[in-house]
Amino acid sequence: MEMINLGDVTLHYRVEGDPDGRPIVFANSLGTDFRLWDKIIPLLPQGLRILRFDKRGHGLSSCPEGDYTMAQLVDDTAGLMRALDFKDSFFVGLSIGGLIVQGLAASHPDLVRAMVISNSAARIGSEQLWRERIASLRADGIEAIADNIMQRWFARSFHQQHALELGAWRNMLTRTPAAGYIGCSAAIAACDFSASSAALELPTLVIAGSEDGSVPPAVARATADLIPGARFELFDDSAHLPCVEHPREYAGVLGDFLQQSGHV
Questions:
Q1: Less CB within 10 Å around the terminal CB: N or C of the chain?
Q2: Residue 53: CATH number of its domain
Q3: pLDDT tens per residue, the chain (264 residues)?
Q4: 183 lies in which domain range?
Q5: Secondary structure of the chain in HEC code, one letter for each residue
Q6: Structural domain tally of the chain?
Q7: Do residues 144 and 214 make contact, with C-beta atoms less than 8 angstroms apart?
Q8: Distance, CA of 76 to CA of 91 (rounded, Å)
């Protein structure tokens, strides 16, 4: 178990792959820990040094009380990457992880060589939507919204064919500390990277799921259109977590983009 203290937060992380390989970083979604990428890691090209981590309030990382800001989440990530010498990295961020990489690319450009914005956008939902969700969480807890979130996370076919696995993902969600989920929700509520992301100049891939109820394909595509030269990839029969639903295809798209951006 690998932990690092960054001042007001302690992050849980894992480094694997080739110790001398090209750096690649994965940032997971709201309500998940770094096991989100378990199916992807064995399918990646050889010659990569891989970093996964639990953001503040998630997994085995510490959970400070109060609302978080996106700047805090970005700075947490930057601090971890600098401490572990993950500069000039290929960065894959899903959902809130996609916001983190956009903020990182804008404020710490030496850390990000190319980015994948998966099932995310420059802005996710409205501030009112997130404030209403936060109020619901404070009143009733994560359990009360868990089934609804499962519907947004996974396509109908996954619900039909992977009931046991679905239960495990539901457990991961409901065991997320409420303070961590609420803190990160507040960060999303206040975040709009439309202006800063439009000014980015680095290889970018935006991924969407055809049945994504959290970040609909049209919203993800609008972010791809915002970033100069960004490529857009739509996964059919997939919702918010295509890396779980279609890991081989997802890893294949990442491998192709790694090659195109000169990272392997």
A1: N
A2: 3.40.50.1820
A3: 999 999 999 999 999 999 999 999 999 999 999 999 999 999 999 999 999 999 999 999 999 999 999 999 999 999 999 999 999 999 999 999 999 999 999 999 999 999 999 999 999 999 999 999 999 999 999 999 999 999 999 999 999 999 999 999 999 999 999 999 999 999 999 999 999 999 999 999 999 999 999 999 999 999 999 999 999 999 999 999 999 999 999 999 999 999 998 776
A4: 2-260
A5: CEEEECCCCEEEEEEEECCCCEEEEEECCCCCCHHHHCCCHHHCCCCEEEEEEECCCCCCCCCCCCCCCHHHHHHHHHHHHHHCCCCCEEEEEECHHHHHHHHHHHHCHHHEEEEEEECCCCCCCCHHHHHHHHHHHHHHCHHHHHHHHHHHHCCHHHHHHCHHHHHHHHHHHHCCCHHHHHHHHHHHHCCCCHHHHHCCCCCEEEEEECCCCCCCHHHHHHHHHHCCCCEEEEECCCCCCHHHHCHHHHHHHHHHHHHHCCCC
A6: 1
A7: no
A8: 15
Nearest to 175 by CA among 98, 60, 97, 10: 60
Q: Cα separation of 227 and 222, whole Å?
A: 9
Residue 241 contacts residue 33 (beta carbons within 8 Å) = no
Distance CA 114, CA 204 (A): 6
- Cβ–Cβ < 8 Å for 208, 217: yes
Angstrom distance (rounded) from CA 57 to CA 220: 26
pTM score, two decimals?
0.97
Query: Which residue matches tokens 């970093």?
Result: 51
